[in-house]
Amino acid sequence: MGVREVGTGYKPGDRFAPADQMDVMKNTTSRILYTYWNEVRGRRPAPHRFEIEPARIAAILPDAFILERVDNQTYRFRIAGTRLCEQFGKELRGTNFLDQWDSEDRFILKQRLLSISEQASVGLFEYEAFGCGSDTTVQFEMLVVPLMQKDSVINRFLGAVSSCAGDWCLGLEDLTRRQLLRHETFWPEGVLPLMSNFNRRPLPDMRSARLVRINQRSFRVYEGGLSRRSSEKG
Q1: How many CB atoms lie within 10 A of CB 162?
Q2: Strand locations in 74-200 (E)
Q3: Rounded distance, CA 87 to CA 72, Å?
Q4: What's the mean pLDDT in 59-88?
């Protein structure tokens, strides 16, 4: 997957960045988070954790979360919004984000999160969630942006999850299973020239992918013509 650089055209003081500069994001929640994060970031790869003011993104706090990178296998929820916890039927704070996914998706997410941590990229994900014993699915968009700690190390991640279909009936059923549909990382305008200050060891090539279903079976389709069947069968 090639490097994708996304410029926002956003200047500090503007309320929102122009929508046509964030066309990779479908949901308003993702755009609000990205716009605020990009304003605080300025020309740096990422803002510091202490610079984030929750009151500035109050409208999306129920859908927001903060992850801490403990190691490559553990990304712990430090904060998880109330609506996010309600959607998945449990308190997420203190749990490992990667534990919510099957082995294939976990591998993909580890590489994407490593890219966010070591290359100051932004991660955009679409996934579907299922309830136990139900064929009903809900599709979500998740945006994950990097935050710096002391010594300019990125080991915190600010994110938000929102339904691609808008509001849905909370409490109808806990969404206990989830599967990635699409995933990509991109770099905001001005980040790439500044990345020389970071440890940029090569990362595995993780191309954008989408999930397709044929005859009740799920297939992961990657750019370039290669595909790999998902572990889940319908």
Answers
A1: 25
A2: 74-80, 122-131, 137-148, 154-163, 175-188
A3: 26
A4: 93
Q: Can you read off the two tokens belonging to residue 13?
A: 């003081």
pTM as predicted: 0.75
- Compute how many other C-beta atoms are within 10 angstroms of the C-beta atom of residue 192: 15
The helix (H) or strand (E) run that includes residue 65 is strand 64-71
Domain coordinates in residue numbering, the chain: 26-207
Residue 62 neighbours by CB distance under 10 Å: 16
Helix (H) or strand (E) holding 232: strand 227-233
The answer to whether the beta carbons of residues 121 and 92 sit under 8 Å apart is: no
Span 116-133, pLDDT tens digits? 999 999 999 999 887 666
More confident residue, 21 or 28: 28
Report the top-level CATH class of 26-207.
alpha beta
**Rounded Cα–Cα distance for residues 169 and 10 (Å):** 34
CA gap 139, 119 in Å, rounded: 28
- Tell me the per-residue pLDDT of 177-187, one tens digit each, with 9 for 90 and over: 789 999 988 88
Instruction: Give start and end residues of each alpha helix (H) in the chain.
Output: 28-41, 82-87, 103-119
Residue closest to 182 by CA, chosen among 122, 126, 107, 101: 126
User: What are φ and ψ of residue 90, in 5° steps?
Assistant: -165, 165
CA 173 to CA 132: how far, in whole Å? 8
Helix, strand, coil % in the chain, rounded to nearest 5: 30, 35, 35
